[in-house]
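# nightly structure sweep
# worker-07 picked up a monomer target from the shared queue
# config: single-sequence mode, recycle default, output format = structure tokens
# input follows
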Amino acid sequence: GNIDNLSHNDNDYICCLANKVASYFKNPNKPMCVSNACISGVLATVYAHRLINEGKYKTIVVVGGDLLTDFVVSGFDSFRSLSHNVCKPYDKNRDGISLGEGASTLILSDETDIPNCFYIAGGSSSNDANHISGPSRTGEELAHAITTAMNEAGVNPSDVSFVNMHGTATVYNDEMESKALAVAGLADNTVVSTKAYFGHTLGCSGVLELAVSISFAEKKEIAKTLGFEETGTPVKLNVSQTTIKNKPCDVFVKTGSGFGGCNAAVVVSNRDCEADRTYETVSYSQSEAVEISSDVASGSDFKTYIKGMFASVSEPYMKFSKMDDYCKLGTTAVQLLLNKTGGLSQYDPYEVALVINTDSGCIESDLAHSDNITADEYISSPAIFVYTLPNVVAGEISIKNKIKGEGVTLVNDTDDPKRIVEEFCGGTNTKAAIYLYVDKCGERFSAKAILFVRS
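# output follows
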């Protein structure tokens, strides 16, 4: 939200920004806020695609925006991940990210007879279940999102004109992406990163880079990957070194990866893909639910209370002590739920989805990081900054329980958990979905975890 003016004033929250935008354009529908780190733009597009296919809306406006602030720069600097030069995606001399800021809009419609129009042909998401600030070691999870999206679209690697990857130019991200492309069968396809043009625009990057990719594809061009000179990834990639002109671009893939170990991929096409375009109505039934809140823990210190609750349903787990309170709360609620249901061992890791909902999100970690960088003695801690994203709780839960399926984090959309699960998971292979509402602000805290199973 309004990250430069953090306070306990609700007007600073991201949902208020979305409501103001909707109100300005006189849209009576409640906006949906996807807050999923750097995959937010790609994931919001995937979600919108599903809602349209399910017949929920005829038109959806997908808006992404992010500002370059001291809050953000100091955080990435704490990870020593910023380059002092223009970033060099996939290059052997790459040394980090170039940050940027921007805003972008895509309009998705259910109309199918618009000439020369690109459409979303498939989309998917996944969780690494590996580390909250480092990518997968194998790229398998991103590859799963890519191949699932391609399967929905009915396309093969040979159909794909180019792949616009996340391409941040950090050592480990680009390594992981090269492995993912190999697993997905796309290592020989033309690979593009547009990060050196306008920097990494974070939550906006997916929407902005989709718009840019569509613009190039409309002109039958593939963008040059600025900064790239010589391959520096374990898998050699076919990175675009010049702007390729007069190249039919009927199908391309856009991906994103982010903190918390989240991945998303979307397939864009301007031709009739050989796919089953019918969307079956999928129903999920509530299996079990648990709830914990400050109301039932009155008189108890939160840290003591939550530590005891977690210990009552989990074996010793070293990562728990490192989490912020928001993640401890959400992780504990899910462990209580899984203890009640007997776990999820009957499902493949990719068959389990995580749907997170929150109001104030990670506001306490936001304030802690803000206080640190404005103090007389400037301190920027990666151990705090990594928790300034509402979706990181999903990463912690995924790591603890080896959940690798679909995932989304929403802000202020708490009206109907069953509806949200069915809308987001519709058309996927999700057999079980954990819905988690989690909120922690000062002395007030609340968490509710519900297990939904496919009917």
